[in-house]
């Protein structure tokens, strides 16, 4: 029986790396993407291949560049014919006043966080439709639901992902393709390493669960979503320890 294949963007660290490990352990072949950490990603993929006896394909490049994504899917088609699970995880943040943000910074975060989701979905969907099955999971944020001061651009891209998820789920439900988003709270990743110890303690006190989430927790939830009942689609699910 042919193994299923999962594509994880932003897979070199944080949630993406944890998701790749969880899906490899579950027996999925993997297509892994990152923008800059090519050697690190390839070493990680090699380790997964040896540990879990799966097949891996690394595609390093700017996931916000539609031309690169087209090239990536050409490689994917030769590797496995198409992906069964798509995890749109790649993302960057920008902290600062909107009035001080440059147009180039706006464009960069928009393409990395939102255009990448469009490109990957557009190119993954034909295979899923032909198979009459597929799972698309988009990593979002609580800020996409309620917004964050000094993170207007980031909040806007995550809000766009939430609306995108709900709309695409309606479009693809007749083809038995489920589309959901996981709106993460504060996860203990490099993106949130900006907090000093005092700020971290204060933030942890605001979270009812009393701690930052772990990338491995998100990864386990994504794995559960990949096998959830087909009726679960079009949802933006907060994963934040009760914070928002």
Automatic annotation (TrEMBL):
GO terms for biological process: monocarboxylic acid metabolic process; steroid metabolic process. Belongs to the short-chain dehydrogenases/reductases (SDR) family. The keyword Oxidoreductase applies. Transmembrane segments: none annotated. It comes from the Bacteria. This is SDR family NAD(P)-dependent oxidoreductase. One of its GO terms (molecular function) is oxidoreductase activity. Keywords: Lipid metabolism, Oxidoreductase, Steroid metabolism. Pfam families: adh_short. SUPFAM superfamilies: NAD(P)-binding Rossmann-fold domains (SSF51735).
